[in-house]
Amino acid sequence: MSDITTTLRERARALMEDGTIAAFIGWEAGRFERQTTPLICLDAADTDRLIFDEYCVNTTAKYVRDLKQRGRIGVAVRGCDSRAINRMIEDNQFKREDVYLLGIPCPQMNDRKTGTVLNKCQDCAHRNPVTYDELLGEAMEETAPQDRYARAHLVSGLDRIARQNIFNMAFERCIRCYACRDVCPCCTCRTCFVDQRNVGWLGKQDNLSENRFYGMIRAFHISDRCIECGECERACPMDLPLMAINKKLVEDMNTLFGEYESGMTTDNEDALRSFSKTDLEEFE
Amino acid sequence: MPVVDEKKTTEEEWEPRILAFACNWCTYAGADLAGLNRMKYPANIRLLRVPCSGRVNPQYVLEALQKGCDGVLVCGCHPGDCHYSTGNYYAKRRLMIFKRFLEYVGLEPERFNVKWISASEAGRFRDTVKEFTEGVRKVGPLKESFTLAPSAGDKLFGAHNESEAPASEEGGAA
Amino acid sequence: MILKDEMLDSLLTELSKEQIVYVPKQVNGTTRFAPYVSSDKMKLDQVNTVMPPKDLLFPQTQNMYHYGVEKNSGNMFIDPVIESADQILFGVRSCDMRSFDCLDAAFLTKGYIDEFYQAKRDRLTTIAIGCTEVSETCFCESMGQDPNHAPQADIQLRHGEGGYNVTAQTEKGEALLEKFKPFCEEGEVEVADVHCTLNVDASNIKDNLDILHESHELWDSMSYKCLNCGTCTFVCPTCYCFDIDQENRCKEGVRFRCWDSCMFSEYTAMAGGHNPRPEKRDRVRNRFMHKLNYFEDRYGKMLCVGCGRCIEKCPVSLDITVLIDRANELAQAEETEAAHA
Amino acid sequence: MSRIGVFVCHCGSNIGGVVDCPAVRDYAATLPNVVHAEDNKYTCSDPGQAKIRQAIEDYDLDRIVVAACSPRMHEPTWRALLSHTKVNPYMLEVANLREHDSWVHADNKEAATEKAKDLVKMAVAKVDHAIPLYTQQIPVNKKALIIGGGIAGMQAALDIADAGYKVTIVERKATLGGKMPMLDKTFPTMDCSACICTPKMSEVGNHPNITVKTLSEVTKVEGYVGNFEITIKEHAKYVDYDKCTGCGLCTTKCPSKKIPNEWNQGLDNRTAIHKVFEQAVPSKPVIDADHCLKLTRDKCGVCAKVCPTGAINYEDVDRETTETFGAVVLATGYELIKWEDLYPEYGGGAYPDVIDGLHFERIINASGPSEGRIVRPSDGKEPKSVVIVKCVGSRDPNKGKAYCSRACCMYGAKHAHQIIEHIPDCKVYVFYMDVRTPGKNYDEFYMQAKNDGACYLRGRVSKIYKEGDHYVVWGADTISGAKVEVNADMVILETAMVAAPGATETAMLFGVQTDKDDWIIEAHPKLRPVETASRGVYLAGVAQGPKDIPDTVAQAGAAASKVIGMFSHDSLESNPQISNVDIAKCSGCGTCVHICPYGAISLVEKHLRENSVKVTRDVAQVNPALCQGCGACTVACKPGALDLLGYSDKSIMEEVDALCQW
After folding, report:
1. N or C: which end of chain D has fewer CB within 10 A?
2. C contacts of A181 (beta carbons < 8 Å)
3. Which residue range is the domain that position D618 belongs to?
4. Minimal-distance CA residue of chain D relative to A196
5. Can you count the helices (H) and strands (E) in chain A?
6. Do A223 and B97 touch (CB under 8 A)?
7. Cα-based torsion angle of the residue sequence D517, D519, D520, D524 in order, rounded to the nearest 10 degrees
8. Predicted confidence (pLDDT) per residue in B62-120, tens digit
9. Could you give the number of structural domains in chain D?
10. Euclidean distance between the first and final Cα of chain C, in Å?
11. Whether D38 and D106 share a structural domain
């Protein structure tokens, strides 16, 4: 058992026992080899099941919303988890004092099938948690990704027809299970636009147009808030290249409206809810 | 009743269908002025009046493009002149991003644009409509280029009236 | 009768002259059953397709009625839209074959016949292939199905060295077998049975779930990590819930049905805003109860075939076999407690 | 099921001459839920209106589509008509067949008719989803707040107060008056500035309806038109004005006498306890806390000892009060540009005799330190050669401001005229870019200055440097093309006006925008020049942009008349086409709060019952009096919990679908 796992169990148990937190969110081992699954400890005894290794693929911060009425919630956070927490605080889903964060520097997660670094972790710029109450283990030196927007650049370099083919194929195979939405820490709407058929945003038909409407508009809705965790793409059962879309939007915002990284703080000026009189003028 | 463009099915008869969202205070008034001055511009454009370009949800744009408009134009006040002081600044950011996004997933750049046209710029309105219409005409019907997947019901719409079988009597009675 | 590997393409080409032959293949970056084209590279080695074959009979979007007001007469019309064609489903696995039992039960029994389903079902011929390998998530044996042999199929193939053993199992199968003959030769290849590595005891699961009350802690602990996405229901070969909606244009409209998921909160939302299953705990419970209890109650079989797709695809690794194990364990505990009391 | 009536207007031959109106009418009759369609010669005329009224009765209509001219023209007409019928005035849609169709497509009648059909079907689709809207009454609190006590603020205050309403003036400085009483004479009449301004000051100070708060500023604004809750901070004066009689004894005894006197542009000194100038209103002193020995070092205390009424209070603190006002006038005024930082080639402020216009006003002013004699600040000698440089900081986008400051041509001429009048043998050179004199008697005045002997040279000054006891001014005469070098004893820079510091911050408190130069943006530059985008907030004077005294006073009067007009009603009608929150969908993220330019949206904690469970959560709330209906928030709201009444998502989507698919 790794040191981090031991410390994590000890700290989570201690926090639950002294009443600091009402629940703790981490990971436990799954049924299969190298498989992990989110664990929500509601009882101090549950903390013995906690583990931390390089196969903890889930970003778990979103569970705080379900649990917050129980009291203060403890969460094991890596870089991406902590940014998700910040993001949800900024979106007024809960307050910083509603969570107690055990920070864990992330060794980068691996794909359990291939044993190689997960796609979503490959261009991670913040492996250390950006906010925490306690840090377990040593903070590591961050390495900036070679190209933050590599996923988008793979596509944006292609010609129009090729890009269209990629995305048509993707939206064609989308089954509208909404896993990308449900796993996303930015998707905190009570009622998603897709569930409002009476407004007429989109129909329930499964076809390219409706799926593209869903895919594009969901991406646009989170565009200035996306924390680039890549959970949507990992969760997608149909392997849609969702990060190629999100990264494109994030890149455009950064280029046009100034550099930012969502979720690094709780008072970011989101690009689409602010403006500058000196913004580039291309519609003259 | 209308199947989409019943009579405009062949290539040469195709006329672009263009929707423009126009801010009530600037562009809509500018278009009114163009009328007052009896300016001439292509009849393909239909204006949809909104209070402010800030009201134009990119979702409307995508809806229009996917449901059968060949081009969509959004027009508002020049930045700084917004009747509501800031609406067009937000619109600008949203639509700058959305335009790039549309092109990224494969839409021709000619099909979507944003223009600032004040209430006094009737000539600019006319020129914009002309240019935009020509641009859309050049790239042709959107149905083919943006791959509008037929909705499952597409082949049914209009089919009943065409066949005009007595079966409809039964249907009516049922 | 043996169908040699090298004759497979010729057979399928021949078959698809008269009907649509659905084969497992790579389409749009995923694997599913899709019409065979002779140059196709099939995915017969694939343990299971990502998407189940249920959409052959129960498409994700299916038109039901076309209605409207006639242009000239002003009369109203309602035209039912019944789509049907001769279809062959080739290369289907044993688990997916059993899923048709479930769908048939839901759509064709208990005094209600779904005409849209029936029109497609009647003209479907199934050709199953026995599994030659199992994936870690396969547990059909626990659900009472043999991965090597699907009794529900019209024709059963089993692969061995160099070819397939072909056996017709129904009248439909016998008829189709005639078409096979020119491509087959007499004899039999040696085949080896495979067995699931994942095994759970589902023999008493219905009764055990009856013992566990709705408010049981099991449902909390099983549901808290669920995201309420529809992945499990959409990749499931037996989930048959649907929604009915319409698309209107001016004075006509098309009414269609499309897959829906009981995992969506919108699924049970009522006009006026009330939701009888407001929490994900309620929805998770409903799904598993439907699979392992309610359906068996009504139709005498479980609504899970052990294909393992939901385990494979669930973004948070929510695992039905874990639930079965836990339920067995907890029910036993309850019973023991009751006996003591 | 709705019951829609469509009325197609021929507009004489304006529409009917191009568009096949009967065909459009017949087409309209086939559209969903249209139960009646007719065409008329003139739908806006009395007979046309009567037909609509009749059809509403005959066909039991509940929604109306009029296909006619631009809705910007007659929508109000038909709304007014509907307000007398059972159809809600907001269940009306106007299809623009004239300005957007027949007038621009007269050369293609077939296409024009097709377009007309499309426009009608879009209108039908939209009106089908219209819901009735109702205006609300907002009570009006008939008390005005004027921000800025200069000539603009005072004029507006007097006009409103004379109409019988209560007014409060908030002035940042210690006296009313602003810039005007600093001036010597006013162009073109050359009447004494103080003589016409100070009576107004005392009139304001003594007016029973006016409350003056000096050394004060607005710190917080809540509420909306008719009901602004405004917090005003009054800075400590250390003198109790209720007790002070203004005798002035304290100022004569104060030992801190070496403080540069701002009123006289630092040409002389003042004491720590001081009255800003002789005719200041209120005519009472304040203590300058930065220089007072008692307040800085706890020594002295002489003023308290000599004060006969015990009005000195060293313990005085800043005080905040909150009051309700119905309307606000922003008259925040201007300052002169800080030319010293921008123009090092003019000495950057190092030469004592290179001064700005306001400086010169204090020199030439009879109540100034030199009692009206024109002398050089450096040595007190009378100058015999003066150079006046115009457009310093104005019309200079590279260094200063791009705009023209409007008044400088005239006060440059005034200064030239005054110098020659005082020192007949003094040479006056005026460097100018253009001379702009639009105004009554303005050009005559300029001509007179030239006739007096002022030498006008067209060109910018490139450099000023000191040589011995005089200054050398390098310039260009662009008319002759010659390089010009002038020796001057004194140089007057007619510098640009810039917005008063803090004007933008103050405007922002009211949700009013300022432009890139910090001037307040009016609601419409032509038609609503004294209104702002925030209802109930008006503007007056230079705060809106550079102008001279007559324009400022005229605008102040206009702003006052707007306020008086508003106060003549007990309540105002709200615009019903505003944002509306569906709290079931609202997740309380607060994005809309950031977006709203009017501060109309706030997050409030609501106790709700959802699925039989009591929950408490934050949801957005729109203040219907503040919301102007722009809809920017509705797009930012991802789940569409915010929707714009009258332009709802549903209705716009239906319009799009109708155009594309019907």
Report:
1. N
2. 229
3. 579-645
4. D639
5. 10, 6
6. yes
7. -90
8. 999 998 899 999 999 988 778 887 899 999 999 999 999 999 999 999 999 999 998 88
9. 5
10. 62
11. yes
Distances (CA, A) of B94 to A274, B50, D9, D579: 10, 16, 38, 19
pTM of the model: 0.81
CA angle D416, D417, D422 (to 5 degrees): 100
Counted residue by residue, chain C has a size of: 341
Same domain, D263 and D367: no
User: Which residues 118-147 of chain A have a CB within 8 Å of chain B?
Assistant: none
In a domain, D300, yes or no: yes
* CA D396/CA C31 separation, integer angstroms: 68
Question: Cβ–Cβ of D611/C274 closer than 8 Å?
Answer: yes
| CATH 3.40.50.960 describes domain B15-148 | yes
CA-nearest of D125, D120, D147, D148 to D20 is D120
Q: Which residues of D touch B68 (CB under 8 A)?
A: 660-661
Residue C80 exposed, middle or buried by CB count within 10 Å (0-12, 13-18, 19+): middle
For residue D480, the 8-state DSSP code is T
Q: Do D639 and A192 touch (CB under 8 A)?
A: yes
Transcribe D189-203 into DSSP letters: TTEEHHHHHHHHHHH
Q: Tell me whether B14 touches chain D (CB under 8 Å).
A: no
| Number of domains forming the structure of chain C | 1
**In this structure, which amino acid lies at residue B138?**
K
Question: Computed over its alpha carbons, how large is the radius of gyration of chain C?
Answer: 22
Cβ-count burial D126-140 (b if 16+ within 10 Å, e if not)? bbbbbeebeeeebeb
Using alpha carbons only, what angle is made at residue C324 by residues C319 and C326, rounded to the nearest 5 degrees? 95
Start-end of H helices in D228-280:
249-253
Q: Which two tokens stand for residue C5?
A: 């590997």
Out of B156, B168, B171, name the one closest to residue C254 (CB).
B156
Does position A171 have pLDDT exceeding 60, yes or no?
Answer: yes
Q: Do the Cβ atoms of D659 and B32 come within 8 Å?
A: no
B-chain residues within 8 Å CB-CB of D635? 54-58, 90-91, 94
Q: Edge-to-edge, what's the strand order for the sheet holding D319-325? A: D216-224, D227-234, D319-325
Interface test with A, best of D621, D638, D647, D659 (most A CBs within 10 A): D638
The answer to whether C76 faces chain D, any CB pair under 8 Å, is no
The answer to whether residue D658 sits within a structural domain is no
Spatial separation of the C-alpha atoms in residues C120 and C82, rounded to whole Å: 9
Residue D240 lies in a domain: no
Shortest CA distance from B44: residue in chain D: D115
Q: What tens digit of pLDDT does each residue of D120-134 get?
A: 999 999 999 999 999
Q: Is residue B6's pLDDT more than 50?
A: no
Give ∠ CA D633-D639-D640 in degrees, rounded to 5: 50
- Nearest Cα of chain B lies from the Cα of C200 at a distance, in angstroms, of 41
Give residue limits of the domains in chain B. 15-148
Which residues 44-103 of B are in CB contact (within 8 Å) with A? 58-59, 62-63, 66-67, 79-80, 86, 89-90, 92-98, 100-101, 103
- A229 vs chain D: nearest CA distance in angstroms? 20
Q: For residues A194-216, b (16+ Cβ closer than 10 Å) or e, as one string?
A: bbbeebbbbbbbbbbbbbbbbbb
Chain D residue with the nearest C-alpha to that of A69: D615
Only one residue has tokens 């639930």, namely C323
Nearest chain B residue to A253, by CA: B97
d(CA A251, CA A233): 17
Whether A256 contacts chain B with CB within 8 A: yes
- Please give, rounded to a whole number of angstroms, the shortest distance from the CA of D612 to a CA of chain C: 9
Residue ranges of chain C with per-residue pLDDT less than 50 = none
Q: Is a pLDDT exceeding 70 seen at residue B4?
A: no
Which amino acid makes up residue B23?
C
Q: Which two tokens stand for residue C283?
A: 């929805």
Give the residue on C whose Cα is nearest the Cα of D582.
C273
Contacts of C27 in chain A (CB under 8 A): 173
